[in-house]
Design brief:
eight-stranded parallel β-sheet
């Protein structure tokens, strides 16, 4: 049986401040490719991590972001479901505007400990990954498009949100659901039968399961993400992004993390 998914893996640096997420994206794509019996489309070439400002990281990622945009467009236009293994959330600068363009009625489930809704004017860290949703919603111009309706964005498991960022989220109409309220029932209520684009940053989890570069306590557990996936109608899923798996973490064996990623994802395959 032919898989409904087109597997895309980001291998170009997009504001990476650690080296593990590029490896994690590759390992995730290899495992998903084996599971689904499909060959990944590889976008970009790895380069060393560096702590740089968004204004430097953004032009450096131009080719990778453009490649991701084109790969997602090709997958959607071919009638398949994009399945992305990406390094950083900033890779979504290349995907979300295409989601807005091709699936304007879709809800974006941004399953993440962070709101990623800062702008160049509000960011304290200068980190590009913390600005991706704001760019896609048109609060600032990344050069890669916008068009996402913030009222169709649901941040699931959000808890590490700057005060100014929180104001921007509220003003824009983004729904933020804290971990204690991120139940399958609540999420399906908010989705309300609409098509969905799913983004998972693994730092949404309680630390100790799937390592990510930016760890935040009081997170969700893997089975809670799986339950949300299981509650979504299969036919409603328009795409999936799995981001920020920090491979090489000594506290969590890589095979354990990959097994958890696969187990969680398979709840969309029922």
């Amino acid at each position: 049986m032919t898989s409904p998914f087109s597997l895309i893996v980001s291998q170009g640096r997009v504001a990476d401040r650690t080296d593990g997420a590029l490896i994690g994206a590759r390992r995730t794509a290899e495992a998903l490719g084996t599971l689904l019996d499909i060959t990944p489309t590889v976008i970009g070439s790895p380069s060393a991590a560096i702590t740089d400002d968004w204004s430097t990281a953004l032009p450096a990622a131009e080719a990778t972001l453009t490649g991701l945009r084109d790969a997602v467009r090709h997958a959607i236009d071919a009638g398949s479901i994009p399945l992305l293994a990406t390094n950083t959330c900033a890779a979504s600068l290349g995907t979300l505007p295409t989601v807005a363009e091709r699936h304007p009625d879709a809800v974006v489930l941004w399953i993440d400990a962070h709101g990623d809704f800062n702008t160049p004017a509000s960011t304290d860290s200068g980190y590009l990954g913390g600005m991706v949703l704001a760019a896609a919603c048109g609060l600032w111009d990344s050069g890669h498009g916008a068009g996402l309706n913030p009222e169709q964005v649901i941040v699931v498991g959000g808890r590490d949100i700057d005060p100014i960022e929180g104001e921007l989220l509220s003003r824009a109409g983004v729904t933020v659901v804290p971990p204690t309220e991120s139940t399958p029932e609540r999420i399906t209520e908010l989705v309300a039968g609409r098509p969905v684009w799913i983004h998972v940053d693994w730092d949404v989890l309680e630390p100790g399961y799937i390592p990510a570069a930016y760890r935040v306590g009081a997170g969700l557990l893997p089975h809670q993400i799986a339950a949300i996936f299981a509650a979504l109608p299969v036919a409603a899923v328009r795409g999936v992004e799995l981001a920020e798996f920090e491979a090489g973490d000594v506290e969590v064996p890589e095979r354990v993390s990959i097994e958890l990623i696969l187990e969680t994802f398979q709840h969309l395959l029922r």
